[in-house]
Automatic annotation (TrEMBL):
<feature type="domain" description="3'-5' exonuclease">
    <location>
        <begin position="301"/>
        <end position="478"/>
    </location>
</feature>
<dbReference type="InterPro" id="IPR018320">
    <property type="entry name" value="DNA_polymerase_1"/>
</dbReference>
<comment type="similarity">
    <text>Belongs to the DNA polymerase type-A family.</text>
</comment>
<dbReference type="InterPro" id="IPR002562">
    <property type="entry name" value="3'-5'_exonuclease_dom"/>
</dbReference>
<dbReference type="InterPro" id="IPR036279">
    <property type="entry name" value="5-3_exonuclease_C_sf"/>
</dbReference>
<dbReference type="InterPro" id="IPR020046">
    <property type="entry name" value="5-3_exonucl_a-hlix_arch_N"/>
</dbReference>
<feature type="domain" description="DNA-directed DNA polymerase family A palm">
    <location>
        <begin position="645"/>
        <end position="852"/>
    </location>
</feature>
<dbReference type="Pfam" id="PF22619">
    <property type="entry name" value="DNA_polI_exo1"/>
</dbReference>
<keyword id="KW-0235">DNA replication</keyword>
<keyword id="KW-0378">Hydrolase</keyword>
<keyword id="KW-0227">DNA damage</keyword>
<dbReference type="GO" id="GO:0003677">
    <property type="term" value="F:DNA binding"/>
</dbReference>
<dbReference type="GO" id="GO:0003887">
    <property type="term" value="F:DNA-directed DNA polymerase activity"/>
</dbReference>
<comment type="subunit">
    <text>Single-chain monomer with multiple functions.</text>
</comment>
<dbReference type="InterPro" id="IPR054690">
    <property type="entry name" value="DNA_polI_exonuclease"/>
</dbReference>
<dbReference type="GO" id="GO:0008409">
    <property type="term" value="F:5'-3' exonuclease activity"/>
</dbReference>
<dbReference type="Pfam" id="PF02739">
    <property type="entry name" value="5_3_exonuc_N"/>
</dbReference>
Length: 888
DNA sequence: TCTGTCACG
DNA sequence: ACGTACGTGACAGAC
């Protein structure tokens, strides 16, 4: 069999990985994205190519012979950013642990080492694959050596053979050097022949074959000017060619023995992966092993199928006074979901699986356990359990711990809180994902269709994971002083959110349909008008096609570009609106289509047939700041700003005639929070005296008396206040107000001069973030901001704005969460029929019973305003109406 | 699956 | 010299 070797340009590949991936860091803020990308790529190539030998070459910092010969070589190259630099030693350590050969020598670049190794391997009759992001390596291609070039994003690969090089570039591998000698290379500062570009160089090489032959026959060059250029740059061309030539005779000792692929040091590799928090690789290693630690012993799990067994289990749970639960349901809408099975684990090791279909007659026994507040329950994403039980009239009580929420408080910026992910992270295990059981996307099946033994095992694994995680997470929460927030806010809030989901928001299906028909008529009309004006039919929804029509066909000026083409967003369109009547039509079309697709069709799709309501999901572990998010549908972005869209709110109505809707919103909660945190006297005064805060800001920033502020000035000041909350920048404010950066800076300076306390808060927030690595909110919610330490201006600036904004947005989130708990509890305590049904960041929507109007209005106002005592008052405005639209 | 756009606070 | 406002989710089209 033909033996193979992979030769990797380490510097080039880690570079590609670094710029191709988002700035991943460990919890401690160590950058790991480039190493991660590198290892990913390594595994992929390894698996595809299965080589017997491997080596990775690196550049050294020391000057190479090229620098010695030519001082300007690679001059002007940017230094490697610190975030990447610190990853190099990590990568090298990792390669050593993996027992992968690596080479680096003072005075030579990785390319030269690769060139030398390639020729050596050709002699030894090995087939080589050179892996690099640098096209210079194409000169090394031969019938035994292929070159794999990684393009952007790392997943895009191109493999070159001599033939494909000729096909693509019209030169042979060895002519590649001549090509560069002629064209030069600005990135390496190689001069080449001035005025000769790729086209000319290729033509010349086709004619002569090489630079040397061309020099001997310059008189054959037809083009007079070109000939002169070349004749006066002969030395430079030869010199450039030499710089571009990869050396193949570096004095380095090579032996096949050293290059041989060996198996990695498993233990150490695992340790490094753990340190770097590369959980997917850990999982990969483990699944490659023959047995897994989690292979559950079925004999330890008792399957329960009759009343007697349920009672025995109930007794055991009662004695333990604590259990871990995982309930499997069918994957439908909240109100249609059914329970398939229930896994329960007790600390003494007893593990049960209840076959739900067979214990239907034992629900009372279960209910007694689940509703007993003295029996504590722990789980993962336990809102799911609450909702499933709710359907059977069981109200899960005594919720003690939710591992997903615990991890959310510890790491609010994680992308996944799936149980297997966090179990594997925190305990270095190799649990499989739920996805491996039921698949994803169109292949997804329900737990009903799964082999029962698999469910039994998986349920036991989840409960075990929760049990083990709880021990660790509880300590961590305690250490970071997050226990109070966890126990007193987030855990009780689960039930509130579950109830909101279960209750749902009634909508008028008919009204939605007729609104849809109306919109359809308008859309059809607009489409034909747009086609007429464009002179052809095209897909108006396609930004690409629209861009072609507007900027190519109609020759309108392109104002902004995106990375894929012309920008056609609303700002651009508004600027073009006077240039062509089609623009206004497109703006109108967009508005209607948005309403139709997202808010008419989208909402109709999710109306529950039985309840005639929309049951959105409220997620507690999504946002980085502590806010709640709403999905399927998102009820937190129903239109309001424009009248046309606002009409949608007319379809949101109370359950029946006995109810009205109450909408209670905090007035200026974020600015009040800012006043509280910063203790700025001016800002505090505005709220203490209940003055209009934007007018006040205008009066200060524009230096006019309060009662002489124009509406124009007030509106500018409002933008300034928004900017302050977002972590202001002159550019952002300028963009928003359509003024120059300089003017914007003037506003900002003026603002900070008048609100010194706010200014010092901003500085303090950034300082604190840099010092601690995180910032906090009023309730000590925490967000890590590794971006603050970045050497990249943009990333660092983003970190600074985050440090300023998160305590404000996050504290506001804390306040409304507490308010939700208080309102919910008070309505319960008084046995009222009114119910909290929605939260939209600074507003609560309550379905209010006709007989409870005054009482509930008072409760909501009081509990919201007194949720958390700040040094400025909180103010809540309340509106009632027969639809959400009417609560204004 | 990613990108652009646009709806909300 | 750099190129941004903070936090979300849904939809359609391009790839």
């Amino acid at each position: 069999m033909q033996e193979k070797i992979i030769i990797i340009d380490g510097n080039s590949l880690i570079n590609r990985a670094f710029y191709g991936l988002p700035p991943l860091t460990t919890k401690d803020g160590i950058y790991t994205n480039a190493v991660y990308g590198f290892v990913n790529m390594l595994y992929k190539i390894y698996e595809d190519y299965r080589p017997q030998y491997i080596s990775v070459a690196f550049d050294r910092k020391a000057p190479t012979f090229r620098h010695v010969e030519y001082e300007a070589y690679k001059a002007g190259r940017k230094r490697m950013p610190e975030e990447l630099g610190q990853q190099l030693p990590i990568l090298k350590e990792l390669l050593d642990v993996m027992n992968i050969h690596r080479m680096e020598i003072d005075g030579f670049e990785a390319d030269d080492l690769i060139g030398t190794l390639v020729r050596y391997c050709e002699e030894k009759n090995l087939e080589s694959l050179v892996v690099t992001g640098d096209r210079d390596a194409l000169q090394l291609a031969s019938d035994k050596t292929r070159i794999l070039i990684t393009k952007k994003g790392m997943t895009d690969l191109e493999i070159y053979t001599p033939d494909s090089i000729i096909e693509r570039y019209e030169v042979t591998p060895s002519q590649f050097i001549d090509l560069k000698g002629l064209m030069g290379d600005p990135s390496d500062n190689i001069p080449g022949v001035p005025g000769v570009g790729e086209k000319t160089a290729i033509k010349l090489l086709k004619q002569f074959g090489s630079i040397e032959k061309m020099i001997q026959n310059t008189k054959e060059i037809q083009n007079q000017k070109l000939r002169e250029k070349i004749e006066s740059n002969i030395e430079q061309a030869i010199f450039s060619k030499r710089l571009a030539t990869i050396k193949t005779d570096v004095p380095i000792e090579l032996s096949l023995e050293a290059l041989k692929r060996e198996s990695p040091n498993q233990e150490k590799l695992m340790e490094v992966f753990r340190r770097l928090e590369f959980h997917s690789f850990i999982q990969k290693m483990k699944t490659n092993e023959e047995t897994t630690e989690l292979d559950t012993d079925m004999t330890k799990i008792q399957t329960i199928e009759n009343l007697e067994d349920v009672s025995d289990m109930a007794e055991a749970i009662e004695r333990a006074a604590h259990c871990y639960i995982k309930i499997f349901g069918t994957g439908e809408n909240v109100r249609n979901r059914k329970i398939v099975g229930i896994s329960i684990l007790i600390d003494d090791g007893h593990s049960y699986y209840l076959e739900f279909e067979k214990i239907g007659q034992s629900l009372d026994v279960l209910k007694a356990i689940f509703e007993n507040e003295n029996i504590l329950k722990s789980g993962h994403n336990i809102k799911n359990e609450i909702l499933l039980l709710q359907k059977y009239g069981i109200s899960l009580t005594g919720v003690d711990f939710d591992t997903s929420i615990a991890v959310y408080l510890l790491e609010p910026t994680r992308t996944s809180y799936e149980i297997h992910e966090i179990y594997n992270t925190y305990l270095g295990k190799n649990m499989n994902s739920e996805e491996t059981l039921i698949g994803k996307g169109k292949n997804r099946i329900t737990f009903l269709d799964i082999d029962r033994d698999m469910l039994v095992k998986y349920g036991h694994q989840v409960c075990t994971a929760v049990k083990e995680l709880k021990k660790i997470l509880a300590v961590e929460l305690e250490n970071l002083e997050l226990k109070k927030l966890f126990q007193e806010v987030e855990i009780p809030l689960i039930k509130v959110l579950a109830d909101m989901e279960y209750e749902g928001f009634r909508v008028d299906h008919q009204m939605l349909s007729s609104l849809g028909k109306e919109l359809n008529g308008k859309i059809e009309q607009l489409v034909s008008e747009i086609y007429d004006m464009a002179g052809e039919q095209f897909n108006i929804n396609s930004t690409k096609q629209l861009g072609d029509i507007l900027f190519e066909k109609l020759k309108l000026p392109a104002i902004k570009k995106t990375k894929t083409g012309y920008s056609t967003n609303i700002e651009v369109l508004e600027k073009l609106s006077k240039k062509h009547p089609i623009i206004a039509k497109i703006i109108e079309y967009r508005q209607y289509v948005k309403l139709k697709s997202t808010y008419i069709d989208g909402l109709i799709d999710v109306i529950n047939e039985k309840t005639k309501k929309i049951h959105s999901s409220f997620n507690q572990t999504v946002t980085a700041t502590g806010r709640i998010s709403s999905t399927e549908p998102n009820l937190q972005n129903i239109p309001i700003r424009l009248e046309l869209g606002r009409e949608i709110r007319k379809v949101f109505i109370p359950t029946d005639d006995n109810y009205l809707l109450l909408d209670a919103d905090y007035s200026q909660i974020e600015l009040r929070v800012l006043a509280h945190i910063s203790q700025d006297p001016g800002l505090m005064e505005a709220f203490e005296k209940e003055q209009d805060v934007h007018t006040m800001t205008a009066s200060k920033v524009f230096d006019v008396p309060f009662d002489q502020v124009t509406s124009q000035q007030r509106s500018s000041a409002k933008a300034v206040n928004f900017g302050i909350v977002y972590g202001i920048s002159d550019f952002g404010l300028a963009e928003n107000l359509g003024i120059t950066k300089k003017e914007a800076q003037k506003y900002i300076d003026e603002y900070f001069d008048k609100y010194r306390g706010v200014k010092s808060y901003m500085n303090q927030a950034v300082e604190e973030g840099k010092k601690n690595g995180y910032v906090t909110t009023i309730l000590n919610r925490r967000r890590y901001i590794p971006e603050l330490l970045s050497s990249n201006y943009n990333i660092r600036s983003f970190g600074e704005r985050t440090a300023m904004n998160t305590p404000i947005q996050g504290s506001a989130a804390d306040i409304i969460k507490v308010a939700m708990l208080r309102v919910y509890d008070e309505l319960k305590r008084r046995n009222l029929r009114s119910k909290l049904i929605l939260q939209v960041h600074d507003e609560l929507i309550v379905e209010i019973h006709q007989e409870e109007i005054e009482e509930v209005k008072q409760i909501v106002k009081k509990e919201m305003e007194e949720a958390i005592q700040l040094t400025v008052p909180l103010k809540v405005d309340i509106h009632l109406g027969k639809s959400w639209y009417d609560t204004k």
